[in-house]
Amino acid sequence: MASNVNPTVRRRRLGMELRKLREDKGMTAEQVAERLLVSQSKISRLENGRRSISQRDVRDLCDVYEVEDRRLVDSLMQMAKDSRQQGWWHAFGDIPYSVYIGLETDAASLRTYEPQMVPGLLQTPEYAQALIRGALPETAPADVEKRVQVRMHRQKRLSETDNNNPDVGPLRLWAVIDEAALRRHVGDPQLMIKQLEYLIEQSEQPYITVQVMPFSMGAHPGVNGQYAILEFPDASDSTVVYIEGVTSDLYLEKANDVQKYSVMYEHLRAQALNVEQTRQFIAEIIGQYAGGGK
């Protein structure tokens, strides 16, 4: 398994190239689907990178678009081949949010707002285990442990030395966390103390910024729920807004959608406590846990 090949990102890049070829040809997805005797939804899924694409698919599409540049066809065929390789997360079996992990693995920066929990990239193993058990009570212990292991593996992106891909530096993480996430008892008080101490420790890393949105701020742009904005080092990879769901997730890539969420995030950062205030605030909550307070 090649560690420097990310199938999720390859699919996205390939999908964008295929969409560009279609648009340059002046064809609609429906017209292409009719030519290939497939559904329009298949063409759409291939172009948005949500479906695995075969070299045969690429060949057929290039024929429809009358691509004469053999080097371009060969390049697209190679991307299709790479996109079918397995990322590191496949070693853990069926992971429901594998598309997101693939994006996160190659992202240059991640801006996230979490209203209910400490972000996964900043969780201790004990907190992650207790959180998963509480959120998914019917999950088998072995599956809980698998999810914890995946979460811990994801955290390697926050360290340049642990990064499996030498072409991508440490992930630049900016997290705005609601006060509710810090006061929600996940596990016992000692577990929460350890988690919050770890949060302060991580906030001192050069690539990590943590801000808390206190209850006293009242209504703010994040009241509608969790979301994350992923940006990539390659200019050809569009920024993605990720919204987690119970049974399915939402990925927004249209420029207008990304702009709205980016502006909303700037308001969140402006209204939240600054970095030093955040550390002091978290330390006060640690003291309350240690003293048995609420």
Explain the overall architecture.
The chain is α/β, with parallel strands linked by helices. Helices cover about 50% and strands about 10% of the residues. A 6-stranded mixed β-sheet has the order 3-2-1-4-5-6, with helices on both faces. Strand 5 (about 240-245) and strand 6 (about 250) form a beta hairpin. The protein is elongated, with a radius of gyration of 21 Å. The model has no long low-confidence stretch (mean pLDDT about 85).
Write the layout of secondary structure elements.
Elements: H1 7-25, H2 29-36, H3 40-47, H4 55-64, H5 70-83, H6 98-106, E1 109-114, H7 125-135, H8 141-154, E2 172-178, H9 179-183, H10 189-203, E3 208-213, E4 227-231, E5 240-243, E6 250-252, H11 255-271, H12 275-290
Parallel strand pairs: 1-2, 2-3
Antiparallel strand pairs: 1-4, 4-5, 5-6
Protein name: Helix-turn-helix domain-containing protein
Domain HTH cro/C1-type: 18-72
Organism: Streptomyces flavotricini
Assess the beta-strand content as a share of residues: 5-15%
- The string of secondary-structure elements, in order, is HHHHHHEHHEHHEEEEHH
Number of helices: 12
Provide the helix percentage: 40-55%
Mean pLDDT score: 87
Largest sheet: 6 strands, mixed
The rough form would be described as: elongated
Would you report the number of β strands?
6
Q: Taking strands numbered 1, 2, ... along the chain, how are they ordered across the largest sheet?
A: 3-2-1-4-5-6
**Low-pLDDT sequence parts:** none
* Rg, Å, rounded: 21 Å
Note the gap between the termini. 48 Å
Structural class: alpha/beta
